[in-house]
Amino acid sequence: MEFPLHISLVSFLLLLSIVNPIFAAEVCKFPAIFNFGASNSDTGGLAASFGALSSPYGETYFHRPVGRFSDGRIILDFIAQSFGLPYVSAYLDSLGTNFSHGANFGTGGSTVKPPYSYPTSPTFNFSFSPFYLDVQYSQFKSFIPRTQFIRKQGGIFANLMPNEKYFSEALYTYDIGQNDLTAGFFGNMTAQQVNATIPDIIDNFSANIKKMYDLGARSFWIHNTGPIGCLPLFLANFPSAEKDEYGCAKEHNEVSQYLNYRLKETLAQLRKDLPDVAITYVDIYSVKFSLFQDPKKYGFEQPHVACCGNGGEYNYNVNALCGTTINTNGTKTIVGSCEKPSERIIWDGTHYTEAANKVIFDKIATGAFTDPPIPLNMTCHRSVTKTL
Ligand SMILES: *[C@@H]1O[C@H](CO)[C@@H](O)[C@H](O)[C@H]1NC(C)=O
Ligand SMILES: *[C@@H]1O[C@H](CO)[C@@H](O)[C@H](O)[C@H]1NC(C)=O
Ligand SMILES: *[C@@H]1O[C@H](CO)[C@@H](O)[C@H](O)[C@H]1NC(C)=O
Ligand SMILES: *[C@@H]1O[C@H](CO)[C@@H](O)[C@H](O)[C@H]1NC(C)=O
Ligand SMILES: *[C@@H]1O[C@H](CO)[C@@H](O)[C@H](O)[C@H]1NC(C)=O
Ligand SMILES: *[C@@H]1O[C@H](CO)[C@@H](O)[C@H](O)[C@H]1NC(C)=O
Ligand SMILES: *[C@@H]1O[C@H](CO)[C@@H](O)[C@H](O)[C@H]1NC(C)=O
Q1: How confident is the model at residue 122 (pLDDT cuts 50, 70, 90)?
Q2: Taking 70 as the threshold, does the pLDDT of residue 242 lie above it?
Q3: Which ligand approaches the C-alpha of residue 329 most closely?
Q4: For residue 83, is pLDDT > 80?
Q5: Is 305:340 a contact under the CB 8 Å cutoff?
């Protein structure tokens, strides 16, 4: 006997939803985002602490410097937008901030391991942020009771604080690790020496995730480290580095890849160890690298040349960084931006343009570059992210 069509369709869909629970799952509605990281995800923390960035930072979208290391929005902004959430306010910014839907603990120059554990650069002064990952964790840890106290107290600040239940429902985003590698390379370590520090960096990172879990965090979205060897910062400062067919420094990229390999493996283990957790590993490396492999495909040109900079093959000079004032033959000029930032991948030699960030966001949001392979808007589902 044959079943009527609608019954078999129903049972087929039912079967599908058992076999692949993502079809049954609803789109995630994260009420808040808490971010941890470095300059790729800073929305004003470093600028609030140590002085504002100068124009032309922010010129494309905000039309003024807003503490983001780009000409416009960064990936975290696109993530927030995609959930209909406001841009994430920097925790360290005491002016005009609104934490009702999250907070950003990431600051430019942050490392996973304490900055004092790295050698100082013999060639130039890199200032790594004092707000390394453990400090960001402590800030977050006290943020919970303090914001809840303020809410209970009432008054004008109460509504600027997150609802208590948001801490377990929020999306916890991470973008950190690149500066640990940068600190090693600029501290005159060989690629092998930097490589050898990676297990320690990953252990430290893993310990952080566990401690965040203990504070109630459940949904994690974790960016790996990009291809540092494609950045003007590295290309200009290590001119003798061997290049790959796309003009990126091979050895530097290999060290990023090893960090990413260890990170992915560690996150897979954490997914098994921690009950009721949703951990998504995001392969930012592959997405960023694809821009350098085929820039034209995305409307970009001069892939390794910074848009905002001052001369040289990569338009990058550590003594004349984007937005700084330089003295040429007695005339003061500001290091400014290229004609069309929308046609460039790299903004200031280290960070990406808004145009590149948008392409990167669109790709990572699909799930094609994540482990497990599920879209951003499904990453709250614990059973799915555990079993896929
Ligand atoms: C804080 O942000 C929320 C969400 O965007 C908004 O509804 C609220 O009005 C803001 N509060 C203030 C005081 O601006
Ligand atoms: C960097 O390291 C190399 C090899 O270890 C050494 O020869 C060189 O003197 C170092 N340079 C500085 C500036 O410390
Ligand atoms: C680093 O900064 C210190 C203090 O500002 C200065 O004395 C030193 O010469 C700088 N070193 C380099 C390599 O620029
Ligand atoms: C880094 O270390 C790993 C493990 O020892 C090794 O497989 C890899 O080739 C190393 N990479 C570099 C660039 O030294
Ligand atoms: C990370 O490493 C530092 C120094 O090595 C250590 O003090 C800290 O406790 C570690 N953090 C975690 C969360 O394990
Ligand atoms: C600065 O002066 C030198 C010598 O007169 C000249 O060669 C150079 O082109 C000038 N640089 C700029 C940027 O004007
Ligand atoms: C969820 O994300 C996927 C992949 O980016 C997208 O195709 C889909 O439209 C999104 N769903 C909703 C309801 O926003």
Answers
A1: confident
A2: yes
A3: 6
A4: yes
A5: no
* Alpha-carbon span 281 to 195, nearest angstrom: 20
| Domain-located, residue 332 | no
Ligand nearest to the CA of 192: 4
Q: Is-catalytic flag, 39?
A: yes
Q: Is the pLDDT of residue 43 over 90?
A: yes
> How many Å lie between the centroid of ligand 1 and the Cα of residue 101?
9
Q: Is residue 20 part of a domain?
A: no
> From atom 5 of ligand 6, which residue's Cα is the shortest distance away?
329
Residue 70, domain member (yes or no): yes
For 212-232, the DSSP string reads HHHTT--EEEEE----GGGSH
Backbone angles phi, psi at 282, to 5 degrees: -115, 120
Tell me which residues have their CB closer than 6 angstroms to ligand 6: 328-329
Entry pTM? 0.91
Pick the catalytic residue: 101, 223, 252, 351? 351
Conformational region of residue 109, where left means phi above 0, alpha means psi within -120 to 50, and beta covers everything else = left
Is 111 within the bounds of a domain? yes
Q: Give the residue, out of 120, 124, 126, 188, with the most ligand 2 atoms within 8 A of its beta carbon, to mutate for a pocket test.
A: 188
Of 42, 283, 348, 371, the active-site residue reads 348
Can you give the CATH number for the domain in which 276 is found?
3.40.50.1110
Of the candidates 295, 232, 303, 222, the one whose C-alpha atom is nearest the C-alpha of residue 41 is: 222
Q: What is the pLDDT of residue 386?
A: 55
Asked about 138 being catalytic, the answer comes back as no
Give me the domain span that covers residue 222.
26-301+352-387
Q: What pLDDT does 2 receive?
A: 43
Rounded to 5 degrees, φ, ψ at 193 are -65, -45
pLDDT at residue 124 tops 90: no
Helix-, strand-, coil-residue percentages of the chain, each rounded to 5:
45, 10, 45
Domain count, the chain: 1
Q: From the CA of 329, how far away is ligand 6's center (Å)?
A: 6
